[in-house]
Amino acid sequence: MSVGQYCNRHVVTTERGTGIQEIARIMRQRHVGTVVVVERRNDKEYPVGIITDRDLVVEVMGQGLSPETLTVADVMTSNLVTAHEEDNFWRALDRLSAKGVRRLPVIDNDGALIGILTVDDVLTALAVGLSDVTRLVQREIAKEVQQRQ
What is the pTM of this model? Predict the structure, then answer.
């Protein structure tokens, strides 16, 4: 199981100079809580930071700062924790936990952004896996009951 199998390939991105109010509008319009900050080079996007709805609340609103004077570069987290698309899914989970983050931008071998793995994606993957196991167990039980009759 690789990260590439489970990551979301539809990532909302922006650049460092985007205003904080614009980011809030983008998050609302796109129904996301995370925007990956990128540099665009050669028709590819390279992640350089991440900004979340929590950043807007804690770092801007909670500090009493004026959002109309700030850009993404002022608030974003720039020491990114990333995963490669071929990374082992379980090791990526360990990395999420060890680093205390809920989102991993997923990059290709050149470092370009190709997706994002979120805690929600992980929970969905686990739920699907558990559902498959549950169906298997139910079939086995039904088989055993039929054989006894």
Answer: 0.81
The superfamily CATH assigns to domain 3-118 is CBS-domain (3.10.580.10)
Domain positions in the chain are 3-118
State the Cα–Cα distance between residues 23 and 35, nearest whole angstrom: 8
Q: Where are the beta strands (DSSP E) in the chain?
A: 13-14, 34-41, 44-52, 83-84, 103-107, 113-118
State the Cα–Cα distance between residues 144 and 132, nearest whole angstrom: 19
| CA angle, 95 then 99 then 104, to 5° | 60
Exposure letters 8-35 (e unless 16+ CB within 10 A, then b): beebbbbebebbbeebbebbeeeebbbb
pLDDT in tens, 69-110: 999 999 999 999 999 999 998 898 888 889 988 899 999 999
First to last CA, the chain: 40
* Beta-bridge partner residues of 52: 34
